[in-house]
Amino acid sequence: MVRGAKSLLTNTFTGAFNTVESFTSSLGNGITLLVDDHESFTKSRQNIKNDRSQHVIGGLANGAKSIANGVKNGFTGFFTEPVRGA
After folding, report:
1. Which has the higher per-residue pLDDT, 65 or 40?
2. How far is CA 13 from the centre of its chain?
């Protein structure tokens, strides 16, 4: 009984997190393609592929790191792209 309950909870959380990951990944892909920055898109997808975590804590840390990098790159691009004439 305990083993079954543990399996149910584990699989429920895994499914929920995978669903959220798929949704946010698709959203990020769409936004990146809308701004037409294929170099950034390819680089970020490769980083995500290399940094996949097997645990919730590692996944949350990778997500926070990804958000921070996205914000940093967004601000950097906001100021450097007009200078480059984009």
Report:
1. 65
2. 18
In the predicted model, what is the mean pLDDT of residues 33-60?
A: 71
Tokens of 34: 């809308």
Tokens of 1: 């009984």
C-alpha torsion sign, points 8, 20, 46, 57: negative
Q: Over 80: is that where the pLDDT of 45 sits?
A: no
pLDDT value for 85: 61
Write down the domain spans for the chain. 2-84
Among candidates 16, 14, 35, which has minimal Cα distance to 81? 35
Nearest Cα to Cα of residue 66 among 43, 34, 33, 37: 43
Q: For the chain, how many residues are written? A: 86
The count of other CB atoms within 10 Å of the CB of residue 42 is 11
What's the confidence (pLDDT) of residue 82? Answer: 72
